[in-house]
Structure formats: C-alpha cells, structure tokens
Amino acid sequence: MIITVDTVYQILIYICTYLLGMAFAGSFLGRAWMGNVDVFLHKTLKMEVTVGKYFYWKYFCNVKDPPKPKHLAQPKNLADQLVCKFLDL
User: Fold this and answer.
1) Entry pTM
2) What is the pLDDT of residues 9-57, one digit of tens each?
3) For residue 67, which of 44, 86, 85 has the smallest C-alpha distance?
4) C-alpha count within 13 angstroms, C-beta hemisphere, residue 3
5) Residue 10 three-state SS
6) End-to-end CA distance of the chain, in Å?
7) What does DSSP assign to residue 60?
8) What are the distances in angstroms from CA 27 to CA 12, 31, 34, 41?
C-alpha cells in the first residue's frame, strides 16, 4: 500500500470528523456519557490515569467507579494514604 498525501489527508479528515461527532453527541448526551466514554478509552488503550482525570470523572462527570491512579489504588507513602483517607477513596 502506497501512502500518499491524499491518503493522509483522508485519515486526518476521518479523525477530525470523529472528534467533532463525539463533541456533538456529548453536548446532547451529557457529561456522564462523555465521562464513561473517556473511561472506556483509557481502559481500552491502557492509558495512564492521573489524579486530575480521576477527580474529573468522579466528581464532574459522575462516573460510578472510575479507575484510580496506580499510586492511589494502593497507597504506599504517608501522603498518599492521607489523601486516600481524606477523600474516602
């Protein structure tokens, strides 16, 4: 398969169309749906979960059981343990 400029252009158009469609659907379906899709993509693509993403999913998108960051799932040091106790994680 020969990759041409036209092929790359078509792929970029598909990606942009997909992202615009997701944003459009999210405006109708709401934050919870977009948060669940984001969690699904993070699990599927095995992306790193940050503390900010965790709080965004849990408190803004109201996702029931979002994946926790590795250092908060099993806290080892005192600071992480205090954060987990304080936030009831």
Assistant:
1) 0.59
2) 999 999 988 888 877 776 677 788 888 888 998 899 888 988 889 888 9
3) 44
4) 3
5) helix
6) 50
7) I
8) 23, 8, 9, 18
